Amino acid sequence: MRCCRPVYQSQLLPDVAVVGGLAEVAYGMQLPGVFARLGLEQPIVVPRDSALVMPGRWSGLAAKAGVDDAHGAAAKVSLGRWARRRGRSA
């Protein structure tokens, strides 16, 4: 049976939880059937923390635009576009 790395990893090094990026979490959500078929218990898949670091001047722009932490990724894109339109480095 051809299988995938998370299953081999779980069989060789049993663990309670796996911390991964969003793609790894999405991939892990597709595996319950594989683990069940092999009689293994699937570890909990937890997304790792992430952060957005931006220059101080962007923080001021974000505050003026009413962007909070929940919109971090969108703020990065929006502020990047804003800076490019004005000929500034993003």
Give a written overview of the molecule.
- The protein has 90 residues and is mainly alpha-helical.
- It is 50% helix and 9% strand.
- The chain has five helices and two strands.
- The longest helix has 14 residues.
- The chain is elongated.
- The mean pLDDT is 77.
* Helix-strand topology string: HEHHEHH
Distance between the termini: 48 Å
Instruction: Name the beta content range.
Output: 5-15%
Lateral strand order in the biggest sheet = 1-2
Shape: elongated
Structure keywords:
90 residues; mainly alpha; two-stranded parallel ribbon; 5 helices; 2 strands
Note the topology.
Layout: H1 5-12, E1 17-20, H2 22-28, H3 32-37, E2 44-47, H4 56-65, H5 72-85
Parallel strand pairs: 1-2
Task: Give a brief rundown of this model.
The chain has about 90 residues and is mainly alpha-helical. About 50% of the residues lie in helices and about 10% in strands.
